[in-house]
Structure formats: C-alpha cells, structure tokens
Design goal:
The chain has helices at residues 16-30, 64-75, 91-102, 117-121, 124-140, 151-159, 200-213, 228-238, 251-259, 275-282, 296-302, 312-323, 326-344, 346-371, and strands at 2-6, 34-41, 45-49, 52-58, 82-86, 107-110, 144-147, 166-168, 186-191, 218-223, 243-246, 263-266, 287-290, 305-308. By secondary structure, the chain is of the alpha/beta class. The longest helix is centred in the last third of the chain and has 26 residues, at 346-371.
C-alpha cells in the first residue's frame, strides 16, 4: 500500500503530532509499505527521511512549488492509495483537501485533539474564521477519521457534525527496557510551557501543597524555552522551592531524564494523548495525570499511577502517600511497562493504522491492484 501524509514532519520538535506521524510512518514503511510526506517548505526537493520519502514544495502563493504540488495530486505518480491529513487550523490542509476532492482522491483525517471546545476559546474569533473557511470543508470531505484513543475526540467530531466513520487508535511509543524506579522523590514534566493548555498552574498549585507536606520532593520541568518567563513568574508568585525550569530534551537525553524520576506528572486541561506520559510508562515510571485527560481512563483502569484534579490538597496528599510507599511504586512500575508495551508499541499501532486504511480505503487499493498500477514503487522527481 502507498500512503501519503500531508505536511512535513520532524521528530526533533516539542510537538506530539510530529512525533506520532514520524514514528507511525516509519513503522508502516518498515512493514513493507511505501510512505510519503507531501508538504510546503523552503525548497522544491525530494529526499529520504528515515524510511519515508519526502516531497517538499517551496511555499509561495501559486508559485512553482504550489503548481508542482497540484500537479502531483492530479497525476498521482506515486500511486498513492491513501492520503492522510493531520492536525487542525492549517490552511495548507484545506488547500490539499480541495485538490484531493477535485481529483477524486479519498483522504483520511486526524485532528489530534485540536477541536477541543477550550481550544476554540483561545483566539476565539480567529479560530472561528479559520474553522469555517478552511477546516470545516476539509473535515467534512474526509472519508474517515483516525483518532488517538480518547472518547473526547470522538465527541468533538460528532459535536462538529462529522458523519463519517471514526476509528480510535493510541499513539505509538518506541519500546524501551524497564528501569528500576529511583527513590529520589523527583517529579517530572516534559512538554510545552503552555500554562493554560498544559495545566501548569494546576501542577504548580498541587506542588505547593506537596511541599507543605514533604519539603524533600522536587519538581523538574523541561520544555519550550520561548515560554519560560511566564512560568518563572508563576513560580515566584507561589513561592515555590525545589522547582527547576529547563530547556527541552530529545532522544536518549529525554529517556535519561525520565529514568531519573520517581513520578511523571502531567495535569493538562486538554491533551489529545500525552506522549511523554506514555514514554514514562514504557520505562516503568508511574504517572500522575489530570483526571479529565483522555489517557487517564487507562491510568485508572489499569492502576498505572494517580489521577488528580483541582482539589490541590487532596491531590498532593495522594502524591506524597504514593512516593512514600515503595511496594506500591514497584508494583505500579511493573504494570506500567507491561500495559504500555501492549498498548503503545509502534508495531501494534502501525498494524491498527493499516487496518484502518484497508477498512475504509481498500476498494481504491483493490482496484489499483487489479490494474497493476499500484506497484509500491516511488519514482517521481521534483
């Protein structure tokens, strides 16, 4: 099968959509399928990114890159069976969907939590205009939607009157060896320094109560450096100690940071998935999540840590009691690793993605197979 994701994606960013797309795309390619990224960038070029073939087109209002992109969709020289549009509030998605529909190509869509009602409240007028001008026709033209596991995304799609089929799949996380959880009373957060979306004010207020109970507990944060200033102000306002606000980390450095923590904590107000939560679980690190997050249903059902809310004192007591219970930490660590490997392995997620593609796009693929035009060969040059 030949699959094209609309957009350029890079794992080395603090962005769950990029990480999910790159990991899934490379695993699908590893299983014998051809995968492409089609997107606008700084040049016209064709190159390899891991196992994925990238078709990059120079941005510009109907310049040479735009015309080449339209030609690619019209002629489909890569024999693409499934086009997949990801993320929201990106005019290039509307542009791609317009020409995909014009040239009778079916496409899938993934919103990655982007239509949460609270997101619409941020920059309300801009989001309203962007959704009705660009996102709405793109969304409602999709043959099927692939969501990242949470019921909230399904509710969001139905609230926006999307009538197509919805197929839930967790995001992929690379497998790793389970570690022995250190007894160092360290809490860790990894992600964007977006106070409202990521609930960092909730995190800090819970931690203030934690410190009242046990001053030895520390909190380390690694995230988007551009937004550190607001966090430092909040830290000073609450009079917090033992809180370190640091630069983002990636790859092996990120895994090393997770290994050196007692509990991973994320108190987002809205989050489609929470990759760093799952990455901690893969290593066997117990987690603390806001009870309203999608992944909290799994945390509660499988007893993978603690769920908290805005009752800061009660939430803090649960965290401190857990940190002081070595047996509970060991047993939770075992469950975290086992469940994470089962639910989030790239191989399993890639197979689920392929099942989705085959279920809703198989007729197109089967017709191409009969005519011999889908040969799993990518030959186009830009």
């Amino acid at each position: 099968m030949n699959i094209a994701h609309i957009g350029l994606y890079d794992e080395q960013t603090v962005n769950g959509v990029n990480a999910t797309t790159c990991c899934t795309a490379n695993e699908v390619a590893k299983q014998g399928h051809n995968v492409c990224f089609y997107g606008f960038g700084t040049k016209n070029a064709s190159y390899k990114q891991g196992r994925v073939t990238v078709r990059e087109f120079q941005s510009g209002f109907f310049g040479a890159g735009t015309k080449a992109f339209i030609k690619l969709l019209r002629e489909n020289p890569d024999n693409i069976d499934v086009f997949h549009i990801r993320s929201v509030f990106r005019p290039e998605n509307w542009f791609a969907s317009y020409y995909l529909k014009k040239y009778k190509h079916k496409y899938a869509i993934s919103i990655h939590g982007g239509y949460d009602p609270q997101i619409f409240q941020r920059g309300r007028l801009k989001k309203f205009i962007c959704y009705h001008l660009f996102d709405k026709p793109c969304l409602h033209g999709a043959t099927a939607a692939l969501t990242c596991g949470g019921q909230s995304e399904i509710r969001d799609l139905r609230r926006l009157k999307y009538k197509g089929p919805i197929y839930p799949v967790w995001d992929p996380i690379k497998p790793a060896k389970r570690v022995e959880v250190p007894n160092n009373k360290k809490l860790l957060y990894l992600g964007r320094y977006d106070i409202e979306c990521k609930g960092l004010d909730i995190l800090f207020k819970i931690f203030k109560e934690v410190q009242e109970i046990d001053p030895e507990v520390s909190l380390n944060l690694h995230g988007d450096a551009a937004r550190k200033g607001d966090l430092f102000e909040l830290k000073e306002e609450l009079g917090l100690k033992n809180v370190s606000i640091k630069q983002p980390v990636y790859g092996t450095e990120k895994m090393d940071v997770i290994r050196d923590t007692n509990l991973y904590i994320q108190t987002s107000r809205w989050d489609s998935f929470g990759r760093s939560i799952a990455e901690a679980m893969v290593l066997g690190i117990p987690v603390v999540t806001n009870e309203i997050m999608n992944i909290s249903s799994l945390v509660e059902e499988e007893d993978l840590g603690i769920t908290v809310n805005t009752d800061y004192a009660v939430s803090a007591r649960k965290i401190v009691d857990f940190l002081n219970n070595p047996r509970a930490i060991k047993e939770t660590s075992d469950r975290c690793h086992k469940i994470a490997i089962r639910e989030f392995s790239p191989e399993s997620v890639a197979k689920s993605n392929l099942t989705f593609y085959q279920k809703y796009f198989a007729p197109t693929f089967a017709e191409l197979e009969k005519t011999g035009s889908s040969k799993n060969q990518l030959t186009v040059e830009i």
